């Protein structure tokens, strides 16, 4: 059977991936684990998410399904943050004899949950329609993610990466983590580009160690299980209670949809949009850099490189009206949050000067509004100013936010094939 679980954590603690890792160990005493567990990230704009909007799924073989149902639901009841109003767990069980009949609908539901907004009622209706065993705790919002994770397990025709998650011993949850930073930089040095986003070299920051009160000690992301395991072997840290390697849709851009016109954009969705820069980028209070992008119909939308994107804002500030770009990211509050940008065409920029006098070589003065220029010494005149092209301090190419600002689903440039990419500073 497949077991899908979601929404057991809160902003203060716990982690659904930890519960999955624990269940994986406990269930193995009376069930057989068939494959690595799955961790899927869903629509990153959903306001109800705790941190990364992740759900998980296990694939097992067992003789006593009732024992599995009972063990899993009791474990969720005892470990989920049920006293938090925003924690509403859901668990779904898909039996083997149902796999073929539910595969298409659950797969479609999974892909929709990554890109779109789904209601709790829609999730409950689907679970009932497919005659699935499930349990909804409180309002049952976690059923959305639980069904999605089951759909991902049934449909492996999607791009995937891996994450190695190490978990803390329970008695130190909520305290400061102890992970040797030098060992993380060494792990990155040895295994990059097979692993990524362990550290941020440009900003000299550790990325893979969270700061919240959840059980995760660190997470290493990479192209396959052996690569993330190798990187983890270099890490020096406090004692680790358990580890789990997940297959995941992180780093795949699965949340993005191509759109041609701004009028087609909806709030809380993520897009790839091409257009023309129509305003000079400005930096507002808080350090956020914003410019407007115009589509072929003449509609505009604000595009933002927010303060956490750090040095990426320097690139955005070099854009000028007339540049052609493709932006990748999510839309909330009518603002496009840029995750990546592809500069396809640079506009020409000029410096304008008063013309030189052909007789004496000095710069002419303005003869008055709309009257051209005149040399006071020689009396010569001209209607044409001197125009000099400015060399742009930016090149066409693909640019991304630094690892410290990367969203879970955003695809790293190193994972793009058949693209001519600039070398990002620091690599």
TrEMBL record:
One of its GO terms (biological process) is tRNA wobble cytosine modification. GO terms for molecular function: ATP binding; ligase activity, forming carbon-nitrogen bonds; nucleic acid binding. Its main location: cytoplasm. Keywords: ATP-binding, Cytoplasm, Ligase, Nucleotide-binding, tRNA processing. CDD domains: RPA2_OBF_like. Residues 273-337 form the OB domain. It comes from the Archaea. The keyword Signal does not apply. It is found in: Cytoplasm. Residues 354-394 form the TiaS C-terminal zinc ribbon domain. Residues 2-58 form the TiaS-like TCKD domain. Its EC number is 6.3.4.22. Residues 140-255 form the TiaS FLD domain. InterPro entries: NA-bd_OB_tRNA, TiaS-like_TCKD, TiaS_FLD, tRNA_Ile2__agm2C_synt, Zn_ribbon_TiaS. GO terms for cellular component: cytoplasm. PANTHER family: TRNA(ILE2) 2-AGMATINYLCYTIDINE SYNTHETASE TIAS. Belongs to the TiaS family. ATP-dependent agmatine transferase that catalyzes the formation of 2-agmatinylcytidine (agm2C) at the wobble position (C34) of tRNA(Ile2), converting the codon specificity from AUG to AUA. This is tRNA(Ile2) 2-agmatinylcytidine synthetase TiaS. The gene is tiaS.
């Amino acid at each position: 059977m497949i077991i899908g679980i979601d929404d057991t954590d809160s902003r203060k603690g716990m982690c659904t991936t930890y519960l999955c890792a624990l269940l994986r160990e406990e269930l193995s005493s009376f069930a057989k684990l068939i494959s690595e567990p799955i961790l899927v990230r869903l629509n990153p704009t959903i306001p109800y998410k705790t941190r990364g909007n992740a759900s998980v799924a296990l694939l097992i073989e067992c003789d006593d399904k009732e024992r599995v149902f009972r063990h899993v639901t009791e474990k969720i009841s005892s470990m989920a943050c049920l006293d938090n109003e925003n924690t509403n767990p859901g668990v779904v069980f898909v039996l083997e004899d149902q796999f073929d009949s539910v595969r298409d609908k659950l797969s479609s539901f999974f892909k929709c949950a990554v890109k779109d907004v789904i209601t709790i009622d829609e999730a409950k209706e689907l679970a009932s329609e497919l005659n699935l065993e499930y349990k909804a705790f409180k309002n049952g919002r976690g059923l959305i993610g639980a069904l999605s994770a089951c759909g991902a397990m049934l449909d492996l025709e999607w791009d995937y990466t891996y994450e190695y998650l190490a978990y803390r011993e329970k008695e130190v949850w909520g305290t400061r983590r102890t992970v040797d930073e030098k060992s993380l930089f060494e792990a990155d040095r040895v295994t990059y580009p097979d692993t990524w986003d362990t550290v941020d070299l440009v900003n000299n920051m550790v990325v893979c160690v969270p700061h919240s009160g959840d059980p995760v000690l660190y997470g290493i992301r990479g192209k396959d299980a052996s690569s993330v395991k190798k990187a983890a072997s270099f890490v020096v840290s406090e004692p680790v209670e358990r580890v789990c390697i997940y297959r995941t849709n992180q780093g795949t851009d699965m949340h993005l949809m191509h759109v041609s016109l701004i009028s087609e954009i909806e709030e809380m969705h993520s897009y790839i949009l091409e257009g023309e820069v129509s305003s000079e980028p400005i930096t507002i209070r808080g350090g956020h850099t914003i410019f407007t992008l115009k589509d072929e119909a003449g509609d505009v939308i604000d595009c933002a490189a927010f303060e956490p994107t750090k040095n990426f804002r320097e690139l955005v500030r070099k854009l000028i009206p007339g540049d052609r770009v493709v932006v990748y990211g999510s839309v909330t509050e009518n603002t496009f949050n840029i995750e990546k940008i592809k500069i396809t065409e640079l506009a020409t920029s000029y410096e304008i000067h008063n013309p030189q006098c052909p007789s004496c070589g000095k710069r002419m003065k303005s003869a008055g509004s709309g009257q051209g220029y005149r040399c006071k010494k020689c009396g010569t005149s001209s209607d044409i100013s001197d125009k000099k092209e400015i060399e742009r301090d930016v090149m066409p190419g693909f640019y991304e936010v630094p690892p410290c600002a990367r969203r879970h689903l955003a695809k790293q440039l190193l994972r793009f094939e058949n693209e001519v990419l600039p070398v990002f500073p620091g690599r």
